[in-house]
Amino acid sequence: MRLRSTWYDAWSPEIDSALSALPASSMCPPGLYATLLERSLAEGGRAAVVEDGNGPVAVVGLEREGRLRWRNLTNWLIPGFICPSADGMALEAIASLDAEISVAWWGMPEAARHPAIRESHDKPTSRLVVAEREAFWRSSKMWRTIVNARNRCSELGLRIDEPGDAEWTIRSWAAKWATPEEPRPEASADAQIEIARRLTAAGRLVTLVLHDDGRPLAGSTNFIDGDTITAGVLYRDESVGSLPTGVRIIDELFEYATRHGIREIDLGGGHAYKSRWAPTVGADYDLVLAPTLRHLAHSAVRTVTRRH
């Protein structure tokens, strides 16, 4: 299949037209990707409209990731979604671009396969069937910790999808975990807040916040796709000391799932404590796609740069 791409450094009616021609994702409601992409273009991002002989097959937003690499616009922002594309064409479209591009393979039903994948770094994930939670927590020695958290946090209140709570959770989390590698942490937080706003309205995201007489102490954002919840960001105000609000907010998520008929929760990976909450099942991936020669050339440049 021969694909051709047209690049844009600013918003264009052609991008809007291509987005309208592509199927909408359940995890990216109409207008959400356009908003994210338009903001990104205004801050130095790029966009490619990828077409075959019959019309657009994908719109790919990219942002700089260092001097030699680009990253997909929605990396680690929306599970189960890469970019607006025809069915099964997201990786094919990205691979057709003459660039080295990082792609987060998050919450996908199967492992990524494409000959243009040059790097693949797995992140084992912790997933648990909600109905099996107590049996697993007893086996993982987590049960007593959870009961203790329930007792110690019994005076705290729980808010669900209250105005401002998603923003508080996301901005607090972003401030805590900001790194020098993230060039624009505030822009990433803005994107997450916009996603939370749109997906909450669509019934695809829920925010839980533990509070003490109105003062938020811990919060989490969580994506809903059918009968599965995928954890987003989790923040705990450390000023509460040893009060186990982090444990309690995760426990509250499982209780919410029980009340709303959710079958399974994906807590993701990256932290050892998650293996006590859920067994390791499957993985998410950091991928890099690129033409062979470009990737070899960039790898050589990075090697020389590190040596000097």
From TrEMBL:
Recorded superkingdom: Bacteria
UniProt entry keywords in alphabetical sequence: Transferase
Molecular-function GO term, any one: transferase activity
Listed InterPro entries: Acyl_CoA_acyltransferase, BioF2-like_GNAT_dom
Record flagged with keyword Cell division: no
Domain BioF2-like acetyltransferase: 141-272
Pfam families: Acetyltransf_6 (PF13480)
Protein name: GNAT family N-acetyltransferase
Organism: Microbacterium ulmi
